[in-house]
Amino acid sequence: METFKKLKAYYWPYKKYFFISMFFLLFVTGITVVYPIILQKTIDDVILQGNYKWIPYLAFGFVGIMILKGITTFIQQYCGDLFGITSVYRLRNELYEKLQFLPFSYYDNAKTGDLMSRLTADVEAFRFFLSFGFTELLRFFLLITVSFGVMFYYSPSLTFVTLASLPFLAITVYKFDKAVHPAFRGIRKSFGKLNTNVQENISGINTVKSLSREEFQINKFNSSNGDYKDKYLFTSDIWAKYFPLMEFLGNVSVVTLLAYGGYLVMNGNLQPGELVAFYSLVWYIIWPIMNLGFTINLFSQSKASGERLLEILEVDEKIKDHDSVVDVDKMKGDVEFNHVTLNYTEHDEAALEDITFKAESGKVIGLIGSTGSGKTSITQLMTRFYEPTKGEILIDGKTLSDYSLKSLRNNIGVVLQESFLFSSTIKANISYGRPEATMEEIIEAAKMAQAHDFITELPDGYDTKLGERGLGLSGGQKQRIAIARALCTDPSILILDDATSAVDMETEFRIQKALKNVMSDRTTFIIAHRISSLKHADEILVMENGKIVERGVHDFLLKNNGPYQRIYDIQYQDQKKILQTQGR
Ligand SMILES: Nc1ncnc2c1ncn2[C@@H]1O[C@H](COP(=O)(O)OP(=O)(O)OP(=O)(O)O)[C@@H](O)[C@H]1O
Predict the structure, then answer these.
(1) Where is the ABC transmembrane type-1 domain (predicted)?
(2) How far apart are CA 439 and CA 528, in angstroms?
(3) Can you give the residue range of the structural domain that contains 32?
(4) CATH number, domain with residue 70
(5) So what's the ipTM on this one?
(6) Which stretches in the chain have pLDDT values below 50?
(7) Hey, whose CA ends up nearest to atom 24 of ligand 1?
(8) Side-by-side strand order, sheet with 398-399
(9) Based on the domain organization, do 273 and 364 belong to the same domain?
(10) Is residue 353 helix, strand or coil?
(11) How far is the CA of 377 from the centre of ligand 1 (A)?
(12) 549 phi and psi, to 5 degrees?
């Protein structure tokens, strides 16, 4: 019940529907138990006594009760559904909201397909229990208590004899629950894996096809699909083993009832009508106990699903606003790193070590270095995607955590090498960070990013709809739209992380020229592998193994006999000559 307690905030606000449903359930159950009593009266007091004139009245009474039962059942079911549907509507929204604020470190290990199955199948399983499961559990207790009461009223001894086998039935049901719950958790997990498989395959279809790995992918899917099938079969196996046993134990009760009840009727200790009523009532007890398997099934599924939902809801949002954060509309853009060290996880080696630099507003800082040397990590810290392990980062003299995350990120425009474009129009993609931007502003941003010309050549211009992930555009075109998107927010700090790697040198030069005009009132970080991309920077930081190993302007670094000069030599001089001087 712990899972349900933890998720209470999502369904308890709608308790009104739950209680209305429960209230009508009392009626439905009450009416159900009245049937055998009427039957008993009809046999014992009307037929056996020869009072046949009562039969039409009883028949009409029956019809009336049936209509009443129909109406109460409708209200009970509708309100039960309303309870489930409205609760998970809120739950789904909150899960989605949570996904927006989960730290990057969570996404480092998360699998999209699995997350999607949690937001769909698991939420659905939870809803099913809210809508039907709760009601079924209550119906179970009500039917058993009321039926037991009526049976006890008719004949205590027959009641005990008939129900003697029920404790065994209860034990079997308990064992069934113990076995079936982990099995359902397995099914859910396997379904998540299956989804991940499909999602990864679709996202990486280019790689799959270009390396002719279709067979491999099919086999991988087959194996996940097989695992899903096996998990289901395993659960069916448990079900198939336990269900006949439950049915057998239920039937033992009926046989005992007929034997002992018949004996009592023969001896005149029980009325025939009472035996008939008993026969119906005993099923009102056996049937819910056997059906408990189904209810427990629902309960187990929804408990397993609820646990998976809680795994998302309970993730610690490590990076969030503290109480006294400030909102700054427009930052100046002075960035300062003071002895900053970053370890992504406790077990990882430092990705950045003792990084110190200052970047004043209006300046362009270039970051260069081998792959994995820590260039991107510097920008990830600036945007507070991750927190430094040691040291502090200041913008305009204030620690990053003093700013609200929203205002911090609104003031920083980031363009990545692999920019994600949404499947909407080019216009909507460019104005994504500032939906209120005017068409002139959108065009202005596109012009700076050297994207305007190719956009206007498209048949629908700015209204061209992009496919998923910007499909239909070249790598360089996508990058330019991403640059326009960042520029459209007019950020105080602009980070271009390998953002022009896919555009040709001439276009890159034109982008840089256009940016120069607007760079004066913002700080720009250019991460690049090509020296040509950052040689005009006011300061170039050369990174190696998480450390800044060299810094200065291009002309200085060229004569510094350090790693920068080596990169320059490799890029601009005859490689053979370098290899010769190294004696290789
Ligand atoms: N999310 C992460 N979790 C754990 N380790 C990470 C993560 N991101 C980066 N790293 C590690 O941190 C180190 C620095 O990576 P970073 O991405 O900053 O390098 P980079 O210089 O930008 O490389 P590239 O030029 O290839 O983009 C690498 O060793 C990398 O494996």
Answers:
(1) 19-301
(2) 31
(3) 2-313
(4) 1.20.1560.10
(5) 0.94
(6) none
(7) 371
(8) 352-359, 335-342, 390-395, 398-399
(9) no
(10) strand
(11) 6
(12) -100, -15
Residue of 102, 371, 501 to test ligand 1 pocket, by largest number of atoms within 8 Å of CB:
371
pLDDT in tens, 123-132: 988 888 888 8
Cβ of 373 less than 6 Å from ligand 1: yes
Residue 394 counted as domain residue: yes
Mutate to test the pocket of ligand 1, among 373, 414, 527 (most ligand atoms within 8 A of CB): 373
Report the domain count for the chain: 2
Indicate whether 515 and 415 sit together in one domain: yes
Q: Cα–Cα distance between 355 and 338 in angstroms, integer?
A: 7
Q: Which two tokens stand for residue 162?
A: 């008939």
**Ligand 1 contacts CB of residue 344 (under 6 A):** yes
- Is residue 107 within 6 Å of ligand 1 at its C-beta? no
Give the C-alpha separation, 176 to 150, whole Å: 29
- Write down the residue that tokens 């700090």 correspond to: 493
Q: Say whether pTM exceeds 0.90.
A: no
**Could you read off the pLDDT of 173-229 as tens digits, one per residue?**
888 878 887 888 888 889 888 888 888 888 788 778 877 788 888 998 999 999 999
Closest residue by CA, ligand 1 atom 4: 344
Q: Which residue minimizes the CA distance to atom 19 of ligand 1? A: 372
Q: What is the DSSP string of 272-330?
A: HHHHHHHHHHHHHHHHHHHHHHHHHHHHHHHHHHHHHHHHHHTS---S---TT-B--SS
